[in-house]
Amino acid sequence: MSLSRRIPHALAGALLLLLASGAAHAAAATYVIDPMHTYPSFEADHFGGLSTWRGKFDRTSGKVTLDKAAGTGSVDITVDAASVDFGLDAMNEKARSNELFDVARYPTATYRGTLAGFVNGAPTKVKGSLTLHGVTRPLELAIKSFKCVPHPLYKRELCGADAYATFKRDDFGISAGKDYGFNMDVVLRIQVEALVDDGSAGKVALAAPNH
C-alpha cells in the first residue's frame, strides 16, 4: 500500500481511538453530596436493652464517583460531628463532650471506600473505612436501595441510596456506659442523595440500574 493510502488509514484509526476514549470518559461521572437530603443516622443501646437511642448528623459533605457501565466507583464523605442531633439539647451536649464524640479534638468523621457488588449497573455494597474519634477501621456498608433519575429542576443526573452497617463503638474509643452494661453495638443508617457536578454536566453513568 502506498504512503498516501496509509496516512488516511492511520488518521482514521487515531480518530476511532479518540472517540472510544471519549466514550469511556463520558461513562464516568462525579456526584456532589446534597446536604439537604443526606443525614447519616444511628441507633445505640441504653442500659443493656432498656431502650434504644436514635440520633443523626445534620451536616454532611463529600462526593461520589460512579461508572455503572464499568461497575466501578468511589465514596468520600465527611460528617460534621458537632452537628449530632438526638432531638434533646442535653443529650446533644453530652454527645459533643469528651464522653462520646469529643468534637473539640475530633471535629469530623469520614468514610472513604469503593463501590462494589454491581448488579445491572447498581452497586450493592461499599468496601471502605470509617474514621471516627481519631480511629480508622474497616467498615463495609450494605446498599439496600439505589436509583438514579434526571433531576427535574437542575436537568442533571441525581442518584440516591440507602446504606447500612453495624460496628462496635468501643473499637473507636467511645466506650461510655460500657461499665454499666451498655451494648457497644451501633447501627448506622445512611440515606444519601448526590447530584452530578457542574464539571460533569451532561455526563451520566451510561448503564441503567434495575432498581
Characterization of the model:
There is one protein chain. This protein is α+β, with helices and mostly antiparallel strands and 211 residues long. It has a single domain, classed as Lipid/polyisoprenoid-binding, YceI-like (Lipocalin). Helices cover 16% and strands 45% of the residues. It contains two helices and eleven strands; from the N terminus they run H-E-E-E-E-E-E-H-E-E-E-E-E. It has helices at residues 3-27, 89-96; strands at 29-33, 41-46, 51-57, 60-67, 72-80, 84-85, 108-116, 125-132, 135-150, 157-168, 185-196. An eight-stranded antiparallel β-barrel has the order 1-4-5-7-8-9-10-11. A hairpin with a 6-residue loop joins strand 9 and strand 10. The N and C termini lie far apart (53 Å).
List keywords for this structure.
211 residues; alpha+beta; Lipocalin; 2 helices
Layout: helices, strands, pairs:
Elements: H1 3-27, E1 29-33, E2 41-46, E3 51-57, E4 60-67, E5 72-80, E6 84-85, H2 89-96, E7 108-116, E8 125-132, E9 135-150, E10 157-168, E11 185-196
